[in-house]
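Hi D.,

Good news: the full-assembly prediction came through. Inputs first.
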Amino acid sequence: MLSINKASERDHLVIALNGEVDASNSVELDEVIQQAISENVAKILVDGRELEYISSAGLGVFMSYLEDFHEKEVAFVIFGLNEKILNVFHILGLDQLISIKNTREEAEKALYEA
Amino acid sequence: MKHELKLYCEKSRLAELRGFLSGVLSASGLSEIIQNQLILAVEEVCANLIIHSHDCNPLNHILLEVHINQDTIIFEIKDSGKAFNIIEYKSPEINAVIKEKRKGGLGLLLVRKIMDKIEFETEPTFNTCRLIKKLKSK
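Then the structure:
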């Protein structure tokens, strides 16, 4: 089960993920990010505190937008991942390619300083 | 100890697979991080088979056996779809995945990094993929 909540705060969009992202529902995550890009959102914060699991299908969604973020100068930061999920990002070296912070405060700081 | 699961070829069944594996592994004494890695690796192989070898046909199924031994855990995945030789498959470079904006290709890379050994055999009526994880001797 995955639920995705979107909220606008100051100049950024918060995408909160709750549950498990796998091949059955990664398209939902894809749609939310796709929509944010098409609406020219410049700062995206992913709240991963309630994310319990992610497979390559979910990781692939993030990866597939890195070029778009770069081209459109979108600041994209993920925060609050538990250690199991951080480990999965780490195995593939994605923590070197995506900005990942522990707390919301650190993440917001990174978002507005970028 | 041997555990078995018959998994029907629908993506919505992946949660059931995770539930099964988490039950099997919970008594293994492995850390939560390693348990999650193993669940992920098995799911990546099964998701691949469900989507690419079985076109998500819910009438088809995959058989998963988990053998927990003294020094290894072996996940044996049998199916009768189009044979997909995981060993011959070349995982893409991460940079290529980003450049081409691909959403796939990372799964089997994860499997390779997580497991110690991967075996693939194809017979006339079924294929077997074996994922082997060594347990650290204490």
